[in-house]
Amino acid sequence: MKMMSDAAMGESKKKISSRRLGGYLRQQKGRLYIIRRCVVMLLCWHD
Question: What is the membrane topology here (predicted)?
Answer without folding.
Answer: Single-pass membrane protein
